[in-house]
Specification:
Blueprint: H1 6-9, H2 22-28, E1 37-40, H3 47-54, E2 60-64, H4 71-83, E3 95-100, H5 107-119, E4 124-130, H6 138-141, E5 145-148, H7 154-174, E6 178-179, H8 181-191, H9 195-207, E7 212-213, H10 218-221, H11 226-233, H12 238-249, H13 253-262, H14 264-271, H15 279-292, H16 299-315
Parallel strand pairs: 1-4, 1-5, 2-3, 3-4, 6-7
Helix pairs in contact: 4-5, 7-8, 7-9, 11-16, 13-15, 13-16, 15-16
Length: 316
């Protein structure tokens, strides 16, 4: 249970189970890939889940562009994949390339991608996802149907929030966790609109053996990375902290970096109010390391440096 990620275990398997505003569901239609799609918006809104569902009936090549952003990926992986014809699927069936986290690509990648999309227009479809559409050049955007996953009005937001609550309760019930109605509302509100964060935190509850959650518990239980926050606030043995971070979080770099700007300020406000004045410095530092993350050989180094830098800010 500890090794199986709930975000994968409970990832939607078909179009009906993907939580989406009706606006997006209508724009996708029945899910036939007659065009290329670029899904953009805040983290945890279901962009990658929808991409994988749409591609589930086709041969698929998945590329995490933030990790594989060189032009060689286009030449060696994508072009070779699109050029071959499967004997089982036949020439008439599309191949699908999922380009996850496309906003992390290099300029050379984008330039090569434009030509590749056109070259294989008859045999391949491309589905891209990104958080920041402004980082994707317009000539690349023009080759996709771009769909905004961020909410366009309060009605969309309320509808999706209700669906999140139902999905969260369903997962909790499967693992014997009872949650009060008000506690559920507060839990969803604090993590909205990041469904990935909600599922990750439910897994944390399961690992910790929690079976009942009340409203007053949410402040204590709501932090996926509370142990990291405590390392930051409590200046303990540096080498032991290094070993702990590498052993437990080297594969969760993006989530940890994101928590330093999203969850750490709230944690400090609730549990260490005398340190609230340090929040601007912490957020700025987290932003710096998030920006650097794609430029280092080992992303875990960015995570370590970010945590230790925040620790220095708190304790200076």
């Amino acid at each position: 249970m500890v090794n199986e990620l709930f975000t994968e275990k409970y990832r939607p398997k078909n179009l009906d189970t993907v939580i989406l505003p009706e606006r997006i569901r209508k724009s996708i239609g029945p899910g036939n890939l007659q065009q290329n799609y670029l899904f953009y918006g805040s983290p945890g809104l279901g962009k990658t889940s929808l991409a994988k569902v749409l591609a589930s009936n086709y041969p698929v090549l998945y590329i995490n562009v933030s990790d594989e952003s060189s032009v060689d990926v286009i030449r060696d992986k994508i072009t070779n994949w699109c050029s071959t014809i499967s004997l089982l699927d036949g020439a008439e069936k599309y191949k699908v390339v999922i380009l996850d986290e496309m906003d992390g690509a290099s300029d050379q990648f984008y330039k090569a991608l434009r030509a590749t999309i056109e070259k294989f227009a008859a045999t391949a479809r491309f589905i891209g996802t990104c958080n920041y559409i402004n980082k994707v050049p317009e000539p690349v955007q023009s080759r996709f149907t771009c769909i905004n996953f961020d909410f366009v009005n309060k009605e969309e937001e309320r509808d999706v929030m209700l669906q999140y609550a139902k999905r969260a309760v369903g997962i909790m019930n499967k693992h014997g966790i009872k949650i009060e109605r008000d506690a559920l509302a507060e839990f969803i509100k604090r993590n909205f609109p990041d469904m990935r964060s909600i599922v990750n935190k439910i897994q944390t509850f399961v690992i910790q053996g929690i079976t009942e959650i009340k409203t007053e518990d949410i402040k204590t239980l709501n932090y996926s990375y509370r142990d990291i926050f405590e390392i930051i606030v409590k200046s303990t043995d540096a080498y032991e902290n290094y070993k702990f971070l590498m052993s437990n979080y080297s594969s969760k770099v993006d989530d940890v970096l994101n928590s330093l700007s999203n969850e750490l300020p709230e944690y400090i406000r609730e549990h260490h109010p005398t340190k609230v004045a340090k929040i601007p410095q912490l957020v700025i530092k987290a932003a710096e390391y998030q920006a650097q993350r794609v430029h280092v050989i080992d992303p875990a180094v960015s995570m370590l440096a970010a945590v230790f830098s925040c620790q220095m800010i708190i304790n200076q």
